[in-house]
Design a protein that fits this description.
The complex is a heterodimer of chains A (177) and B (564).
Chain A (H helix, E strand, L loop, with lengths): L2 H17 L21 H14 L13 H12 L2 H22 L8 H13 L6 H18 L2 H7 L10 E5 L5
Helix pairs in contact in A: 2-3, 2-6, 3-6, 4-6
Chain B lengths: L6 E7 L3 H12 L4 E4 L29 H6 L1 H4 L21 E2 L27 H4 L1 H5 L9 H15 L1 E2 L13 E2 L6 H13 L6 E2 L10 H4 L24 H11 L3 E4 L2 E9 L4 E9 L5 E11 L3 H9 L19 E4 L1 E2 L2 E7 L5 E4 L6 E3 L16 E8 L10 H8 L7 E10 L7 E9 L5 E6 L4 H20 L3 E7 L11 E3 L16 E2 L2 E6 L14 H20 L4
Parallel strand pairs in B: 1-2, 1-10, 2-7, 3-19, 4-5, 10-23
Antiparallel strand pairs in B: 6-15, 8-9, 9-10, 11-21, 12-17, 13-17, 13-20, 15-16, 16-17, 18-19, 22-23
Helix pairs in contact in B: 1-9, 1-13, 6-13
Classes of the chains: A mainly alpha (177), B alpha/beta (564).
Chain lengths: 177, 564
């Protein structure tokens, strides 16, 4: 990707962040209106960190820059059953407790290294049925969805075209960028 | 609606696939035509709200919110019911019906109907299909043969724009084709493999209603080349595929002879005992609940198979106490559909150095090969099969951080994934019925429709054969990891419900003659799915279009000669 385009992407992403009321809100309310989920502003900030740990900014935007955590909240709020929403909220608490047990800190206060170790620990742990794993699974799945359907990803990584024009039935597989 | 005129030459009930054609034919021939549509207006280009939206612009990235799904279990089972096109699918509570056995009735109440949403597959029937009931002894003999409808297939194909190859197959006759969309390497490979191992099975490029290379007649409609967006269900800003909205209705409108009246729910047709014919229709305006009457010399019923049956059953009179022209109780019986329950998928490790590029609006097609020339299995009839394949990016979602982010770029390709769906013919039976609910009425004053339709033993046997034969074909092609799935889905999700007002030679055993004209009431024609005496395996819309144009031509000649 050329530098100019990249800077432009970052500017857009940056502008988005500034517009979000996340930085000016009080501690108890999330920055978006949720119909079903009871989530605090603090939890929202933690989700942003978690999602940014899953897909970080490198020389290109990551989850934080595309506000993936807000997509996570929106989707759980609108597209999940009441039972799964409850599991999500309960899993949130378990996740924080498990993190404190694992690293002695709340997730948001962990170093990047500790965060990654903790997440890998959950992901590869033998117990698939833990509440924190359910929570983490949902956040990860939706963060990946947010990222891989973002304007950045679909414009710069896979070159999605709304109007492809042509279809070619057989091309060399090496054409993939 | 222009003016308050209530008298027309022709009234067409329904503006979908077949109603649009009726409107075009009559308006072009100078007949004042009223199209009654129960749903809202949807204008080409103007009323496609999601058509130019990028994936990231959808709040839920295409997913239907949980509450909406819960409120609409039937609609939610339809593949079209996603965030980008759910506004074109009827919600469950809009028009309730009674299911004696599970049946998912998928509807599109708007100008254009389901022609906005269809899968755009347009395969001709052959005499193997038209002669089926007579040969195999089920339903009733079709009063027409391929030669009767062939010129009308050509007629509608030229205008609609159908892409395909001249394959020279007796069981899937060639038509007036625009260049076919290119087959992918995996489709060509499977085509060759099947040809090598089976002398009687032919994989071809499916014929589809896409303008691969538009001709003047298509440009004249204001349509342009298909851009392979594969977002058809949103409505196409290019008019790249055929719909009533992009094609027949605006064409008819240009003549100045067409009036379209949306929000008009037809309760019944009005039969005049003294004149021995229908004089008009009774409509409830969905917005004002006002009941209005419109009159015409000829009525074309194109409400969609089930609603056509419902409206005719509800059209009672002293002469026809059990529904219009229903002296024998055939109306609402012998209903059928397509069996879409079975799928097969696999992986192919070969052709590793090639892939396809872009999105394809269609796939490859294997026409029916079972019981074609003679009965050879323990079930009647057979099935057509789709074949599609593609390679997706190898996206590993394991791990976190920059590693995960790099993996998500998916710079390598997965092996080919291939899949096929069965499209099985089902046998119309007397026990498969539509009827009026004895007490429940809908908000338009029409009895609720009672649907009593199920799979039978023939369908189950056909599914087993599909799995066996496809596993065989896939194995011979070197495909691995073969998986078969019987979705057990209820009938209806094929959205190919047919029959109930079948065509036939004999007025004692059928509703319609060979011109789709009611045996018992000559100025009423039914040319939608309700008219089908049997279902064949082909996607039916093209046949509805051809039957409609043919019947309209007949009606126009009869009108000119003063018989109607």
């Amino acid at each position: 990707m050329d530098r100019r385009k990249l800077i432009k992407q970052f500017c857009f992403a940056g502008a988005g962040i500034i517009l979000l009321p996340a930085c000016v809100q009080n501690n108890t309310k999330p920055s978006i209106v949720l119909k079903n989920l009871l989530v605090t502003g603090e939890q929202e900030r933690m989700l942003a960190e978690l999602s940014a740990t899953i897909i970080p900014a490198t020389d290109t935007p990551g989850c934080k820059e595309i506000a993936a955590h807000l997509f996570v909240l929106k989707m759980v709020d609108d597209c999940y059953s009441k039972a799964d929403q409850q599991k999500f909220i309960q899993g949130f608490d378990h996740f924080e407790k498990a993190c404190a047990t694992f690293s002695g800190h709340r997730f948001i206060n962990c170093t990047l290294q500790r965060r990654i170790l903790f997440l890998k620990n959950i992901e590869t742990g033998a117990r698939q049925d833990l509440p924190e794993r359910f929570f983490y699974g949902v956040v990860k799945k939706l963060s990946i969805q947010a990222y891989t359907t973002s304007e950045f990803y679909l414009t710069n990584v896979v070159h999605y075209k709304l109007i492809p024009g042509t279809y070619r039935g057989c091309v060399p597989a090496t054409n993939l960028i | 609606m222009s003016g308050t005129n209530k008298t027309f030459d022709v009234i067409v009930i329904g503006s979908g696939m077949s109603g649009g054609w009726a409107a075009k034919e009559f308006a072009e021939h100078g007949l004042k035509t009223l199209v009654l549509e129960r749903g809202r207006d949807v204008r080409h280009l103007k009323d496609y709200p999601t058509t130019n939206m990028f994936p990231w612009e959808f709040e839920h990235r295409g997913q239907v919110p949980f509450e909406t799904q819960q409120a609409n279990p039937i609609a939610s089972r339809c593949y079209i019911f996603k965030e980008d096109a759910m506004h074109f699918v009827v919600k469950d509570n809009v028009h309730p019906y009674t299911q004696e056995k599970p049946f998912d009735w998928i509807r599109g109440y708007q100008v254009g109907g389901k022609s906005l949403l269809w899968a755009r597959q347009t395969q001709r029937w052959s005499d193997f299909d038209f002669e089926g009931p007579a040969r195999d002894g089920y339903a009733v003999d079709w009063p027409i043969r391929y030669s009767d409808i062939a010129p009308w297939y050509s007629y509608v194909e030229k205008f609609a724009g159908i892409a395909g190859n001249h394959d020279g197959l007796p069981n899937l006759p060639d038509g007036e084709f625009l260049p076919a969309r290119e087959m992918s390497c995996i489709e060509k490979y499977f085509q060759e493999s099947v040809a090598k191992h089976y002398h009687d099975r032919h994989v071809i490029a499916a014929r589809c209603a896409h303008l691969t290379t538009p001709l003047q007649i298509h440009l004249d409609q204001g349509r342009a080349q298909c851009q392979n967006r594969t977002l058809c269900q949103r409505g196409c800003p290019f008019g790249g595929y055929f719909s009533s909205n992009a094609s027949t209705l605006p064409w008819a409108m240009k003549t100045g002879n067409l009036t379209i009246r949306p929000h008009s729910v037809v309760q019944s047709v009005i039969y005049d005992d003294s004149k021995g014919k229908v004089t008009g229709v009774r409509v409830m305006d969905d917005q004002t609940s006002e009941v209005l009457e419109f009159s015409a010399r000829v009525i074309f019923v194109n409400a969609g198979a089930f609603n056509t049956n419902l409206m005719l059953l509800n059209s009672t009179s002293r002469r026809f106490p059990d529904g219009l022209a229903n002296d024998h109780g055939i109306l609402g019986k012998y209903v059928a559909f397509h069996n879409y329950r079975a799928r097969i998928s696999a992986t192919y490790e070969g052709l590793a150095d090639s892939t396809s590029e872009g999105r394809s609006p269609t796939y490859a097609y294997l026409p029916r090969f079972r019981n074609l020339y003679k009965q050879e299995t323990d079930f009647l009839r057979g099935y057509a099969v789709t074949f599609a394949g593609g390679r997706s990016r190898n996206v590993n979602t394991g791990g976190v951080g920059t590693d995960l982010k790099n993996q998500l770029a998916g710079r390598t390709l997965m092996p080919w994934h291939v899949s096929s769906q069965m499209m099985g013919e089902t046998i119309p039976k007397k026990a498969s019925t539509l009827s009026l609910h004895p007490t429940k009425k809908d908000k338009w004053g029409v009895p609720e429709l009672v649907v009593d339709i199920a799979y039978d033993d023939n369908d189950e046997k056909m599914i087993i054969d599909f799995f066996e034969q496809m596993t065989d074909m896939y194995t011979k092609a070197g495909f691995t990891g073969i998986k078969t799935v019987d979705s057990k889905q209820a009938p209806g999700l094929d959205i190919h419900e047919m029959g109930g007002c079948r065509m036939g030679h004999d007025p004692k055993t059928s509703m319609l003659n060979k011109w789709n004209q009611l045996h018992g009431c000559k100025n009423v024609f039914v040319t939608d799915g309700a008219a089908m005496s049997s279902t064949a395996t082909q996607n039916p819309s093209l046949t509805y279009m051809a039957l409609t144009a043919r019947a309209a031509d007949y009606a126009i000649r009869q009108m000119k000669q003063g018989f109607l």
